[in-house]
Amino acid sequence: MTKLGEYLDKKAVKKSQISRRTGLSKQRMSELTTNETSKLRADELYLIALAIEVDPCDLLQYVCSELKLPKA
């Protein structure tokens, strides 16, 4: 499961509901929440955040929490 999938599980949000509200296909939502190699685009993240009524910055921070700058 991806970080996005974990976030949606914690919020108890159905992927089908997000799909209807955002226009993203159910297949794409499934890919984004289960496939670790899938790439979440900024526009998709923004639409998902709007659909579940959370701050897009909060969702971005959660999804990208493992990213760190390399040590100089």
TrEMBL record:
It holds the Pfam family HTH_26. Residues 16-59 form the HTH cro/C1-type domain. The lineage of its organism: Bacteria, Pseudomonadati, Bacteroidota, Cytophagia, Cytophagales. InterPro entries: Cro/C1-type_HTH, Lambda_DNA-bd_dom_sf. It comes from Chryseotalea sanaruensis. SUPFAM superfamilies: lambda repressor-like DNA-binding domains (SSF47413). This is XRE family transcriptional regulator. One of its GO terms (molecular function) is DNA binding.
